[in-house]
Amino acid sequence: MKPFEDRIKAIRHKLEEEKVDAAYISFRYNMRYLSGFTGDAGALLITGSEAILFTDGRYTEQASSQAPDFRVIETKLDKDVVADTVSSLGIKSLTFESEHVTFASWENMTKRFKDTRLVPASGWVEKLRAKKTPEEIQAIRKAAKLADDAFSMVVSSIRPGVSERDVALELEFTMRKMGSEGVAFPIIAVSGARSSLPHGEPGDKKIEPGDFVTVDFGAVWSGYVSDCTRTFVVEPLEERHREIYEVVRRAQQAGLRAVRAGVKASEVDAAGRKVIEEAGYGQYFGHGIGHGVGLQVHESPRLGQKSEDILEPGMVVTVEPGVYIPGFGGVRIEDLVVVGDDGPEVLTSFPKDLKVLGGLER
Ligand code: ZN
Ligand code: ZN
User: Fold this and answer.
1) Of the four listed, 65, 71, 293, 314, which is most buried by Cβ atoms within 10 Å?
2) Please, what is the angle between helix 2-18 and helix 28-35, to 10°?
C-alpha cells in the first residue's frame, strides 16, 4: 500500500519540522486519506515510529483489512485507552486538528491528556490532499464521466411541467443506477427566478417556458467525487438569456485558459471575473471562481479573489463563474479540471453551447 506509506511519511516529516512528538487525526476524510479506513468513527495517532488507528468494536475488522499500515486498537475515543496509549509511548506534545475538533472533544482531551502539550494544527493533511496521485485522478475522472453519462440521459426530461425536485431525483437515481456510490452533494436543480440562488435547493416549483434551469451535480467513485454545473434555457429564448449566458460562457473560458501549474489561484478568479465585470455584471458574481475537489467536494485549494494558493500539477479544481440576477435568474457553468504544466485537462465533457430546451436546439 504505497500511497499510505508515503502519506504517513509526509506527516512524520511535518512532525520533525514542527518539533512535535505525535499527530492526532480525527477528521474522517483525513483519516481515510492517511490510512485507507473508510469508517466514520475513529482517530489516528502517528508518531515517528508508530501508526495507530483507534476505532470501536463495529469497525475493528474493517479497519484491520483496510488499513494494514496501522496497528488497530479497539476503543471509544472518549475512553482512557487513547490517553494511556499516548502516555505509554512517552508522547510529550501532540497535535490535534483545530478546525475539526469540537469543544466537547477538546474538553475531553484536556482532561485526559494531562501531561501532554496539545498543539493546535491546521491543514496538515488538507495540504497533502490538494495534490492528487494518478490513482486519485483516475477515480475523479471516472466519477466525472459517470455523472456526464447520467446527465446526458436525464437532460431530455427537463421540460415545462416537470418539478425541480423530479429533475434532481431522476439524476440521482440514474447516477446511482450507473454505479455511483452516492451523490457528491445534494443535487442543485433550480429554475426561473430561483436560478439566481447559487446553492438553491430543488423544490416543488415546476419548470416553465422562459426559465433558466441550472443543474449542479456530481458522482462518487472509490470515495472521490466530481462536480459539474450546466445551465439551459427553456424556450422561448430571450435576448437577455443569450446575453447573460454568453458572458458567463466567456468568463468560464477565460478562467480555464488561466489554469496552469505555477499560477496563483486568485489569477484564475481574476481572469473570469474581468470578463463579467467588463460586461457590467460584476455585482452579480458573488462567489469565488472555483475550489479543489477530491474526497470532499470543497477542499484545497480555493480559487477566489483572496486566495493565496498556488496551482500545482495534479491539483483537481473547478472553474465555475456565475451571474445571478435577483428576480430574473442565474447562469453558472462549471467544469472540473486537472491542473497541468501546460494547462488544464478538462474532466467534465457535457457540451457548453447555449442549449434551448423544449424547442429547436441552436
Ligand atoms: Zn458544483
Ligand atoms: Zn463546485
Assistant:
1) 293
2) 120
Q: How far is the CA of 52 from the centre of ligand 2 (A)?
A: 34
Identify the domain boundary among 129, 145, 178.
129
Binning pLDDT at 50, 70 and 90, where does residue 231 land? very high
Alpha helices, DSSP H, located in the chain: 2-18, 28-35, 60-66, 80-88, 103-112, 124-130, 134-154, 164-177, 239-258, 265-278
Ion ligand 2 neighbours, Cβ < 5 Å: 227, 318
The domain of 218 spans 131-357
Position 115 scores a pLDDT of: 86
Q: Are residues 192 and 83 in the same domain?
A: no
Q: Are residues 117 and 149 in the same domain?
A: no
Dump pLDDT digits (tens) for 6-25: 999 999 999 999 999 999 99
What residues pack around ion ligand 1 (CB closer than 5 A)? Answer: 216, 227, 229, 334
Distance 286 CA to ligand 2 centre (A): 14
Q: Give mean pLDDT, residues 337-352.
A: 96
Single-letter amino acid code for the residue at 235: E
Q: How far is the CA of 274 from the centre of ligand 2 (A)?
A: 20
| 144 shares its domain with 225 | yes
How many domains would you assign to the chain?
2
Same domain, 123 and 140: no
Whole-number average pLDDT of the chain = 95
